[in-house]
Amino acid sequence: MMGEVVIQDVSDTALWVAVYRANETKRADALFHDPLADRLVGERGRYIESKMSRSHYVSWSTVLKTHIIDNYCHELIDRGVDTVVNLGAGLDTRPYRLDLPSSLRWIEVDYPQIIRLKEQKLGSEKPKCHLERMEMDLTNVQSRRNFFRRVNGEAKKIAVLTEGVICYLTEAQVASLAKDLRGENNFRFWIADYFSPRIALYLLINKEETKNAPYQFCPEDWFGFFAGVGWKAADIRYLGEESVRVGRRVPMLWWVKVVRLFVRKKVDGGALRTSAYVLLEPNSNACDLARRA
Predict the structure, then answer these.
(1) How far is Cα 290 from Cα 293, in angstroms, rounded to an integer?
(2) What angle do CA 65, 68, 69 make, to 5 degrees?
(3) Domain limits of the chain?
């Protein structure tokens, strides 16, 4: 029996993961609080979440990703970042919920329907910093380059965030984006999601529910790929390792737990390093070897 096509396009994934941020906020031991998430997801977001498989894993990973990126944002601001460019911002609400300096400039870029939804739902809320929003399809190369060039001329130290974005692009599209960012001298940091080859191959399986928003980015050597387009990994934060540190271990099926009792020494290290967020910095020599997982 064929499953239902739940995700109509990539924009629906923003509604999907926002549900998990809303759910986390209600926990007594929440790793973060996003009080605006519930307002943004609406009935459509809850419906999507109820129909999706792998919900326990996606919920876990969404919470850990949010926690890791929050920490990166604070650290980069302490290092002098004056502008954050959030490409494919989705329903992220960091400009409202994080303790940010009022002088910080935060620019959200996404499809028109996402930008309009946020402006409608959050119009009465006041962000902690200077917030701008821009409607743009990131695959529109000329619009993207014009935007990067303008922002580069207006800022001194820029951090780029692509949370759950590059996985939906092809390798050629990611390479083009990386080169455009590398071509502007004030784009100093890039926070990007990483999947190991084995987990990426699993994500590439075309499930009926997400066939309208398939994962596409699966280079054989993730770190080598980015080194080749001008970016090196300055820091890597693996979701599995962070989950152990904060007491939020990855949810597993019962039979996986049984298997681990017998092969724990062989799988624990690798299992904790299947996905991560990586802090990239410009590579002075694109041929330099990047840090490996």
Answers:
(1) 10
(2) 85
(3) 11-282
Give the pairing of strands 83-87 and 275-282: unpaired
Sheet holding 187-195, edge to edge: 130-135, 105-110, 83-87, 158-162, 187-195, 275-282, 231-238
pTM over 0.90: no
The band of 228, judged by pLDDT with boundaries at 50, 70 and 90, is: very high
The structure tokens listed for 224 are 């080598």
Write the CB contacts of 262 (distance below 8 Å, at least 6 apart in sequence).
none
The CA distance from 109 to 105, in Å, is: 13
Angle at 279 between CA 249 and CA 221, to 5 degrees: 85
Among 89-98, 131-140, 212-221, the minimum mean pLDDT is found in 212-221
CB atoms within 10 A of CB 255: 8
Q: 3-class SS at 277?
A: strand
Q: Which two three-digit tokens encode residue 71?
A: 């920490």
Nearest to 30 by CA among 56, 2, 62: 62
> Two tokens at 90?
């989705």
Domain 11-282 indexed as CATH 3.40.50.150: yes
Q: Which residue in the block uniquely carries the two structure tokens 């946020």?
A: 118
* pLDDT digits 0-9 by tens, 47-86: 888 877 667 888 999 999 999 999 999 999 999 999 999 9
